[in-house]
Amino acid sequence: MEQSNTISLPVTVEKDIKDSFSVNLLNNQTLDSPISIRLKYNRIFLIKDGSGILYIDGAAYPVSGSEIFLLAKEQIFSFSKHSTLSGYELCFGDCFWEKTPASVNNCKAVLFNNTADNQHIPVPFSGYQNMDMLFNTLFLEHESEDYINKTDAMAAYLKVIMIKTANLNASLTKAYDNFEKQIYRQFLGLVQKQFHTTHDVSDFASQLNISTRKLSGICKRNSNKGPKDIISLQVITEAKRALQFSTKPVKEIAFELNFNSPEQFSHFFKKYTNFSPHLYRLDFVKIGM
């Protein structure tokens, strides 16, 4: 994975998907007209083979094959022109995920509440055939005629796929039953939902019923980052998206991200990027020309 500064594309918000769930078969599909899409649904790409580059929130991931890409809702992605893909594209909303048993909720949290760390998962040759079989079974089920409880059946297949995906990464499997990991995942989930309204570590610690010191220790042991850094990274990511892909004034972006003034936002943004919001936007526009 490497930082991308090579393209600038108009952003299209993902269209609504029936029943908040879809599975698409990709058979040597060539992308001749790439567009950037802001996701309303979580997404899993199982790539058997392919070529090109997948861009996710400004980071570039070469596509080669025998791999999985995880994309969470609100992320922005696109493929480079003439990228080719063979495999499957699985999309699901949180409302569909609620149909899966509660026992597997930790699995989704591990994979999607910190997607940046799990964006790309190589699939060993020995395990790809099994993953392909699972996706193909789900695809055939999705394409079959509707029947009572069909969505429940597909949710069950999704559960198995999520567990198998997590098991591909040994570091993720250790996270299921560890209480401290559960607190960490809950914190990541709260940050994703509430960074527009608060950046205060104590607010999140209070919701988790632990002290700020305890939360700090948990975050550092699980990510080598403090809770403030994790919150700031989420805010910076969203700020970059807004500056790159919208025409909103900096003042409006600042207030939407819960800053008291444009000056406070500018100081914060420059601290983490070495650019003022205005210069960052200008630089991005120049790159896309």
Automatic annotation (TrEMBL):
GO function term, MF aspect, one: sequence-specific DNA binding
Domain HTH araC/xylS-type per the UniProt entry, residue ranges: 185-283
SMART domains for the chain: HTH_ARAC (SM00342)
UniProt keyword terms in alphabetical order: DNA-binding, Transcription, Transcription regulation
Protein name: Helix-turn-helix domain-containing protein
Lineage: Bacteria, Pseudomonadati, Bacteroidota, Cytophagia, Cytophagales
